[in-house]
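Q: Structure tokens for this one, please.
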Amino acid sequence: MASRIDELEKAREAMRDDISYLQSQSMRNNLMFTSVPEDNASGNETPEVTERKLRQYFEDDFQIARELMDSIRFERVHRSPGASTAGRSFRSSKTGKWRESIGRNATLFRMFEMFPQNVIHKRRKLVPKMKDTRRKGKHAYLAYDTL
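A: Here is the predicted structure, written as tokens:
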């Protein structure tokens, strides 16, 4: 009986891992941007207007060339709901070079990759270990949910 319970628990964990993997695959191209100014008084901004504001924000505040911004393809852009209107996040699906070009120029805003909740939990537990490893002079980084 105990071996059957162990088998079922292992199968359940394997299914959880599979679900987490599938969720992360659907989120892998999603980026969240915070601290992008918002002047959406009506609260029903269209995705086209939101995308235009995001592109303009990066052109103006980070001096990213218009040609580069025009070459970046967004699949979806929308504002995340929240209580504060001043600091809402943008969520956007991006193409490959987007993260690198923005990451080099970014200063006062934040950009996050999206992960499933269980992966976020695992990453939070690994951050202290990563910082400790870096303090020891070793190279360490988080890749998905591993150090």
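A few notes: The longest helix spans residues 2-27. Residues 115-147 form one domain.
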